[in-house]
Amino acid sequence: MTKHQNTHLVGEDQKQPDHQPNCLESLRRNFDAEVHLPADISREFLSAALLWAIDNKVDFALFHEAGKIILAHFGGDETYLPSRWSDKRWHIGLEDREPFFEPDEDY
């Protein structure tokens, strides 16, 4: 298997800060669903969620905005992603199923 690396040189007439947001917005639009996690969510929970998604071959991307971490994904993978349950806490998986991860902290 051959790896290809795309490189793009930014010329004087192009500005990286202007190009980057458009590129990220375009990438984000490729996904059809998002999970918006609070920025202060525990790193233990976030790590467990990302590893669980990777183990289950979920295609996703992480983005951030003020006060939140956005996990963009394709619909149908909700079983393997964080969701906020009726107990007002974040869990990995859907509420009507057994959770993969039980958080210690209230989020």
Keyword list:
5 strands; 3-stranded antiparallel beta sheet; 2 helices; alpha+beta; disordered N terminus; 107 residues
List the helices and strands and how they pair.
Layout: H1 16-29, E1 33-38, H2 43-55, E2 60-65, E3 68-73, E4 82-84, E5 90-92
Antiparallel strand pairs: 1-3, 2-3, 4-5
Largest sheet: 3 strands, antiparallel
Output mean pLDDT.
79
Helix content: 25-40%
**Strand content of the residues, in percent?**
15-25%
Sum up the overall morphology in one term.
globular
> Radius of gyration over alpha carbons?
17 Å
What is the total tally of β strands?
5
The number of helical elements comes to: 2
Structural class: alpha+beta
| Widest sheet, order of strands | 1-3-2
Head-to-tail CA distance between termini: 43 Å
Low-confidence stretches: 1-16
Describe what you observe in this structure.
The structure is a single chain. By secondary structure, this protein is an alpha+beta fold. It has a domain at 19-92. The chain is 25% helix and 22% strand. The protein is built from two helices and five strands. The chain has helices spanning 16-29, 43-55, and strands at residues 33-38, 60-65, 68-73, 82-84, 90-92. Strands 1-3-2 form a three-stranded antiparallel β-sheet, with no helix packed on it. Strands 4-5 form a two-stranded antiparallel sheet. Strand 2 and strand 3 (68-73) form a beta hairpin. The radius of gyration is 17 Å and the shape is globular.
